Amino acid sequence: MVPAMFAPFPFAGHEMLLGQGRALYWPAERALLVADLHLEKASWYAQTGQMLPPYDSRDTLERLADAVRITGARRVITLGDNFHDDAGALRLDAHCTGMLEALTRALDWVWITGNHDKELPRGFGGTIVPELEVAGIKLRHEARAGDTAPELSGHYHPKMRMTVRNRHIARPCGVLARGAGGSERMILPAFGTLTGGMDAAAPEILAALQPASRIEALMPARGQIARFPLWQAAA
Q: Is this model's pTM higher than 0.90 or not?
């Protein structure tokens, strides 16, 4: 049964579910994958005098807990940039610290490090690795251009920009690349509350997913995946 707010699609021989809340669920592994939490981003900005509502970490962790509950996940794998900076964990308030400790105790939790948090603290539980391979799929923070193996990554915070009824809107999306030999690689949307986004068709994203024959944006909508072509190799 597909959880509410998630939509199924095939990826590298597996069924995956992409959620409107920006998480990816892998049913065969009972694993929830999230990229770019950027916990404590607001408090980092506050240190520079740019004041933002200091509730981003709480909102991100509450949405993550909801995704675990909805999917029944037994494993969580984060794809890097978990904290906005190496000192972010030290700025978590007691409530968020308790939430994170409870989640990592209850689940098989794997932290993949990113460029914002290369020195993750070990006090929250879970396993810390630079990258991981599960069932033949490489899980890492940043897509590795030139690698043709199946891959799931984050880093770029892709957003699909479109015009609907004369309104310009942007929504987080996944970006899926198919290679000439049928290989597939995907960049996940950023999960964190204050993560902004890069145009899904930006040259940096398209270059990171080469070599490819076709690249498209994926967005869940009413239980199905909407696909938007971004790039196709010349015939």
A: yes
